[in-house]
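Researcher: Sequence recovery benchmark, item below. Answer with residues only.
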């Protein structure tokens, strides 16, 4: 009897699983995902896996964006080949990742990411390589599975469509196509559990909603607010990577608004959020910077994360710098440099900013007071400084808000395009040479570089005790 009962339970679970795990298969004539919109390199990888006897699907943004008529920023592939099997098929393959082992197949500048199908992290297997933290965050879940398993560990329904290279059909297990048509970001499974497993999904929800102009499913919104604090447990380096995607994909302005609306921004930048709540002018400063950043991305101009970080940190830095100047005898530039270092190091536990960005950001900020000097060598060295361009752009932003005199901003704009002779005149350096300038255009006056070095040498012994 007991055995029969167990069998009945098993059968009912099995049939339920079968029902849930059956995808809706949309044949090629009934969808708009064409190979013409899939990168040739991604197709090469899909076909080689397929021709070697493995299943191979295009997944994630590659399918979603093509369906929406957008250009995917990268192409992700899912397969039943294991990482070592993938590596054996591609000489240009590198295995990466600790939490997820992934294959990166490089074609010049394009990287195609290939992931082996995974089973959900709660897979009932004694050999499963699975670990969670106390809050339910997944630390490791390298459990391989089938495509039927893989779909449940994807984040949103719109990201869980599988394009099968074998017959160009799309497999939809979770109603992803319907949600794309309804333009809604919806989590697969229980929102609270899925956000606890990986709190970065909160940021991803906002990122996709902002980029695709989708709404966020109210069930996610409701789950998000009490869980936003869990972002503090996410490794700060991962949050920096996510910061880049959030703010440098061309949708920084709507992303910022949604992050604030859902109380996520303050988890990454608490001091900025505090300043935004009280300082309306700082809010406008940030808005203009976000608009500029989006404009640059859309025009294919370069953007460095240090600029926007400098903007986010500007109000907190100014506050500390003003206190420093009141307490100690420091120049404005010194105080700004110390304050910027302070703010960055305070934020490292939230969002770790690599030195290659924090160091130039500090310089950009510390150079701000130098723009008030428009004459002499000091002005010239500012113009030749390796951070001049970023510092100048930053100063222009401040000028838009009226924090820098418009005539002063115009002076620094004009001086960049005038002839060298005129430049020297404007800097009141007529007759002096410019570093790197053709001496034939100068009046032949000796450069001050050498005498300066000599003075520095002779000063050295004096400073010794
Ligand atoms: P885009 O590349 O435009 O940022 P994407 O959807 O392709 O968007 P990726 O970060 O490239 O996003 O990830 C590829 C796919 O992997 C996602 O579509 C999703 O199915 C899955 N995925 C990525 N990150 C997560 C996550 N944190 N939790 C669950 N699934 C994820
Ligand atoms: Mg992608």
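Model:
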């Amino acid at each position: 009897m007991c055995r029969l009962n167990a069998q009945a339970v098993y059968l009912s679970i099995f049939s339920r699983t079968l029902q849930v795990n059956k995808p809706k298969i949309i044949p090629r004539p009934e969808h708009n995902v064409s190979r013409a919109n899939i990168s040739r390199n991604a197709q090469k990888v899909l076909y080689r896996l397929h021709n070697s006897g493995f299943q191979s699907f295009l997944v994630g943004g590659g399918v979603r964006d093509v369906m929406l008529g957008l250009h995917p920023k990268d192409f992700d592939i899912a397969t039943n080949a294991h990482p070592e099997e993938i590596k054996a098929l591609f000489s240009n393959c590198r295995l990466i990742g600790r939490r997820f082992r992934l294959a990166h197949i490089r074609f010049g500048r394009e990287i195609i990411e290939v992931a082996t199908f995974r089973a959900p992290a709660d897979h009932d297997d004694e050999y499963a390589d699975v670990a969670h933290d106390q809050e339910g965050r997944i630390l490791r879940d390298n459990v391989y599975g089938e495509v039927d398993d893989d779909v449940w560990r994807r984040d949103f329904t719109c990201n869980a469509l599988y394009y099968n290279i074998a017959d160009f059909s799309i497999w939809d297990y979770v109603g992803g196509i319907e949600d794309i048509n309804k333009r809604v970001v919806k989590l697969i499974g229980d929102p609270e559990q899925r956000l606890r497993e990986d709190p970065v999904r909160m940021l991803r929800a906002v990122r996709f909603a902002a980029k695709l102009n989708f709404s966020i499913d109210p069930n996610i919104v409701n789950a998000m607010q009490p869980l936003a604090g869990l972002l503090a447990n996410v490794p700060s380096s991962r949050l920096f990577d996510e910061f880049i995607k959030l703010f440098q994909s061309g949708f920084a302005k709507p992303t910022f608004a949604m992050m604030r609306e859902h109380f996520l921004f303050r988890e990454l930048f608490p001091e900025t959020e505090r300043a935004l709540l009280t300082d309306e002018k700082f809010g406008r400063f940030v808005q203009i910077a976000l608009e500029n950043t989006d404009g640059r991305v859309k025009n294919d101009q370069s953007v460095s994360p240090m600029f926007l970080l400098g903007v986010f940190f500007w109000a907190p830095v100014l506050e500390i710098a003003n206190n420093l100047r009141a307490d100690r005898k420091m120049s404005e530039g010194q105080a700004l440099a110390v304050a910027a270092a302070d703010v960055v190091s305070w934020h490292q536990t939230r969002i770790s900013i690599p030195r290659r960005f924090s160091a130039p950001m500090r310089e950009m900020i510390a150079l701000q007071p130098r723009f008030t000097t428009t004459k002499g060598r000091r002005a010239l060295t500012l113009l030749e400084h390796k951070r001049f361009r970023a510092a100048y752009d930053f100063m222009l932003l401040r000028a838009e808000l009226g924090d820098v005199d418009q005539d002063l901003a115009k002076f620094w704009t004009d001086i960049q395009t005038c002839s060298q002779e005129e430049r020297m005149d404007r800097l009141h350096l007529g007759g002096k040479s410019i570093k790197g300038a053709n001496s034939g255009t100068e009046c032949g006056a000796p450069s001050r570089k050498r005498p300066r070095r000599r003075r520095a040498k002779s000063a050295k012994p004096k400073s010794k005790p």
